[in-house]
Amino acid sequence: MGEHFLHIGSVRNAEAFKRHLEEQNIAIPFDEVLLSGGESPLAQPLSFNGVKIGNRFAIHPMEGWDGTADGSPTELTIRRWRNFGRSGAKLIWGGEAVAVLHEGRANPNQLLINEHTSDDLARLREGLIDEHRQAAGSTDGLLIGLQLTHSGRYSRPNVKAIPEPRVLYHHPLLDKRLGLNADYPLLSDGDIREIIESFHRAARIAREIGFDFVDVKHCHGYLGHEFLSAHTREGDYGGSFANRTRFLREIVEGIRSTAPGLEIGVRLSAFDMVPFRPDPERSSPGKPGPGVSESFEELLPYRWGFGVNAANPVEPDLTEAVRFLSLLRELGIRLVNVSAGSPYYNPHVQRPTLFPPSDGYLPPEDPLVGVARQMDAARVLKRQFPDLLIVGTAYTYLQEFLPNVAQAAVREGWADSVGLGRMVLAYPELPLHVLEGRKLDRKRLCRTFSDCTTAPRNGLPSGCYPLDAHYKKSQMAITLSEIKNRYRKESAKA
Ligand SMILES: Cc1cc2nc3c(=O)[nH]c(=O)nc-3n(C[C@H](O)[C@H](O)[C@H](O)COP(=O)(O)O)c2cc1C
Asked: What is the pLDDT of residues 407-431, one digit of tens each?
């Protein structure tokens, strides 16, 4: 699987890794010497609007597919959030995607924010803070947000296996994947206004229960992100840039009046690509080949993406992302988390990996190229918006060299804060260990086996099954292993 790409775990030292980047022409900044304590660029505080963030590590939102049917956290959720706190990172970007309405949940176990769940969500935050205090010694400079979402096209609120898409426009490639006909109903402008109101309500609750900010999610193919590519939609919320960003503007306007003082952030898929799939020529049942893009020759200029080159939609184009960040600045939003693509239709863009999940494809490129692509987008945007606080994404794949790249990225101003996703499921204490100058525990590094994605794709909670004993030794791990064996047998038969 992916054998022809460098296995980072086998690289002898920092010098060899740096050489590999140079030989492959992969533009990723790299510091061979790591600094620690007060000297480390990663230990420097940040501040904006009178708010202080104590260091340069952020924890990305990471869903667990482990909430109750009514949208409250379970023991697994509480444990994950405590681990986020234990990391020592001073910016908690959202915890995880929390739906503002039942019908906008991405799965029947997604957290939901409303009057019934608010006490439990408050306790989730408090658990994180307790754990942070114990691990880091103080909660000074800790900023905690809540990611608010509506899953739009990827809503599955009631039954795990049954999609109930809420779409803004007909997408020539994604509609086919979801089996939507041309007459499948679109969300009306009236439906959209109701969704906007539920964001206002959610933000008010988030403020009441102590969150410092809410992230109005605009990434990964979910509703906020779909608005940005709604070029072909008619009415108030589609077509022009002003219309495609009306959803954001109306949400922000309402939050300013219903939750005054609450900070707002936006996690953005700054660029996208056409959907990918396993190359049919190199795949057999149960054994996906490398990813290739869907054919788009008939669809040019490509009008169903945000941040893609319309003439060649496998290339990013940051023109509209720049416009979008200008708008955020006008709206007084300083917190921006730069992500890309979608886990549903181009996972190699969104979360570079050597080993794909059960519904994925083999890497079509060295996953380091995917890391570099996301890092470069953050760099370009940071350069143009020095006053915005930019969080970078896709660092987990760097494994033992994550600290070297993180330090260089912050030192050279590629990003203000380095966000961690999958790594924090495997090795929550990594940020603290880096800041304290401790040697990393290599056995705990995420090697991107994708079980954290394969599990929920097959109806199980997410977590680090290979490395976190809590999952590794559970009944859930036995079930996951049976599922993976079934895939293997199918592929052997084929
Ligand atoms: C299991 C899992 C759950 C995730 N949940 C969320 C989520 O709730 N919200 C979100 O914006 N991104 C989510 N992501 C994406 C991550 O936040 C992150 O962007 C991605 O994993 C790439 O960063 P990494 O290389 O550090 O893992 C999730 C990713 C994984 C693997």
From this structure: 999 999 999 999 999 999 999 999 9
Question: Who contacts 140 (Cβ-Cβ below 8 Å, separation ≥6)?
Answer: 52, 54
Is the pLDDT at 86 greater than 70? The verdict is: yes
Answer yes or no: is pLDDT of 493 > 70: no
Q: How far is the CA of 117 from the centre of ligand 1 (A)?
A: 23
| Atom of ligand 1 at shortest range from CA of 453 | 1
327-348 b/e with 16+ CB inside 10 Å = b?
A: bbeebebbbbbbbbbbbbbbbb
Cβ neighbors of 212 (< 8 A, separation 6 or more) are 51, 143, 144, 145, 262, 263
pTM: 0.98
**Cα gap 492→494, rounded to integer Å:** 5
Residue 62 φ/ψ, nearest 5 degrees = -135, 110
The pLDDT confidence band at residue 489, using thresholds 50, 70 and 90, is confident
Question: In the chain, what is the straight-line distance between the N-terminal and C-terminal CA atoms, in Å?
Answer: 17
Q: Quick one: DSSP state of residue 187? A: P
Atom of ligand 1 nearest to the CA of 420: 26
Judged against a pLDDT cut of 80, whether residue 382 lies above it is answered with yes
As a whole number of angstroms, the distance between CA 287 and CA 494 comes to 8
Q: For residue 494, count CB atoms less than 10 angstroms from its CB and return exposed for 0-12, middle for 13-18, buried for 19 or more.
A: exposed
CA–CA separation, 98 and 74 (whole Å): 14
Ligand 1: residues with CB < 6 A are 60-63, 96-97, 147, 219-220, 267, 339, 351, 393-397, 420-423, 452-453, 462
Distance 293 CA to ligand 1 centre (A): 22
| pLDDT at residue 2 is higher than 50 | no
Q: Which residues contact 80 (CB under 8 A, 6 or more apart)?
A: 62, 64, 66, 96, 425, 463
Backbone angles phi, psi at 276, to 5 degrees: -110, 165
Per residue in 470-482, pLDDT (tens digit) is 999 999 999 999 9
Helix (H) or strand (E) holding 149: strand 143-149
Task: Please give the distance, rounded to the nearest whole angstrom, from the Cα atom of residue 62 to the centre of ligand 1.
Answer: 5
Q: Which residue has the least CA distance to atom 30 on ligand 1? A: 62
> Which numbered atom of ligand 1 lies nearest the CA of 219?
11
